[in-house]
Each structure stands twice: as C-alpha cells, then as structure tokens.
Amino acid sequence: MLMECLCSLSVDLDGDSLSNIVSENAKERAKAIAEEWKPKLDYLDVDASNGNSLEAHAFLQLLATFGINSDFDQECLSKLIPMVSRRRQTAELCRFLGLSDKMPGVIDVLVKNGRQIDAVNLAFAFELTDQFSPISLLKSYLSEAKKVPSSAKPGNTSPGASPQNDVNEKELTALKAVIKCIEDHKLDEQFPIDPLQKQVLEIEKAKADKKRATEVAKPQSKRPRANSGAHAPRLANVPTDKNLHGRMPDRYPQYAYDRTYSYAGPTDHHVPSYVGTATYNFSPNFFGNGYQYQTAYFH
C-alpha cells in the first residue's frame, strides 16, 4: 500500500517525476530485491490466482514505484499481467511499467483462458474495444458458462451434487458478473440486462425450490415419548437376588420422573418375603431422576 501511494505521486512540487526523486542507492537496493524475487514468481500458479495474485502485484508495484522496470524484460513482465488482471490497480500499473503496447497480447491471453470479463475491462482501459468487441466477449463468456463438463470424475461428487448443479451455479455467477460489467461500462443499450436479471431470478428460484424439496424428502426421526404405552418391569415375580438392580433386562426403556417414588411393603403373602413390612425406596439411580431418556436430534 505504501508503494502504491508513492507511485501515485507522479510529480512533486518542482515537477520532477518520482523516479528522479528516489536516490540511486534506494533504486539499487530495490533492484537487488526484485532480481532475487523474480525467479520465485515463475512458480506461481496462474490459474489458481485467478487474476488476483497479491504477490505478482507487489512485485510489479516495486518496479513501478522505484522506476526500475526498464532493467527487466518487458515481455516477461507482460506475462505477469494476467495474474493481476482482476485487481483494480492493474491498468494504472501497466501504464507506469510502460506495458500499454503489450495489452493486445495480454487481452488475447485472457480471452483464450476464459477470462472475458477481465479482457473487457482492460479493452476499455486501453481503448481497444474496436479490436476486442465487448458484446461478443460477454456473450461468449455466458455461452461457455452454460456448457456441461465433458467428463466428471466418479466418486468426487457429493450425493446431492450433479454436473447440472455445477453448471447452474457457474451460469449464475457468470450472469451476475456480466450484469455488473454491462453496468460499469454502460453497455445496456447494446446488451440489455433485463433478460439477464430474469435468468438470475429463475435460477435462484429453481435452487430454492430444489432445496425445499430435498429437506421435505429427508426422513424424520420419531421423538421417543415417556409413558407412551411402555410398561415398567413388574417386580412381583422377580427372584430374590441381592443384585436386583443389575438383573433388570436391557430392553426396558429408561424414564425420567419428577420425584422418586416410595412403596410400602404389602402384608399379604403374594410378594417375596424380602420386602416385608418395611418401606422400600427405589434408588434414584434406577428409576429416579438419575436417568433421562434420549430424544431424537433433528437437523
């Protein structure tokens, strides 16, 4: 950002260019940094940067700010422009670097790589619209976005994904980019945006409808309910065993109660004698508040 601000000060109060103000010592130091930096740019992935490489921009800005671009091959520098074609400073940066005459070749590279939006922007910036028709480039861009990929790798798509879904998403992105480009360069008379906006609404509505249909089709888990017809185990016929609680069958559901219940021992002879006449308290760890049933999780 500092180099960009310095570069924008093209003249000082006396009318000298910034490159004349910078000391020779500073230029030599900047040149040494640039010469060490340049080979590393050869490893940058042009496609991965998608025209928005900060590193390539910083390198070119270093050359422009210190006025050392003439020490580097102009053809090599022009090959870095597609890496920064989406950045708003690109056109001005190219002028500082003396690359204006290289723009037709740069725009041609962008078109061949499916970057028509960037090509249109640079064509307007360098008055090359007669050589590169903006309307033709934008229509070509939309046409390419509608194409279904010729092959898809099996196993790399999610269950809900499909090539057509990818095409719809790509077309939606392309439509929005084209609409913005038309508005920026006032091309509405040559390329009306109303039909394009209608297509955007149709695709977005189709996406929303499909999402709702998918959610409705998802199986819904039933929420378990306490005391919904299930019966607690009968204790009357349970054999006398000291480890009574540990012998309860696992198939019985667990319930949460508001309080622990106490039962008085009966006086007849139908109940095992170990209950007797004493009060028998169920442990909270068995039927009391120590247990809670599990509820289903809804997405």
The number of distinct helices, counting runs of at least 4 residues, comes to 12
The CA-CA distance between the termini, in Å, is 46 Å
Q: What structural category arises from helix and sheet content?
A: mainly alpha
Largest beta-sheet characterization: 2 strands, antiparallel
Which overall shape is indicated by the principal axes computed on the Cα atoms?
elongated
Specify Rg, calculated over alpha carbons: 37 Å
Q: What is the strand tally?
A: 2
Task: Catalogue the unreliable spans.
Answer: 11-15, 241-299
Query: What share of residues is helical?
Result: 40-55%
Q: Which band does the percent of strand residues land in?
A: under 5%
Order of strands side by side in the largest beta sheet?
Answer: 1-2
Mean pLDDT: 76
Order of helices and strands: HHHHHHHHHHHHEE
Family: Belongs to the Frigida family.
GO biological process, one term: flower development
Keywords: Developmental protein, Differentiation, Flowering
Protein name: FRIGIDA-like protein
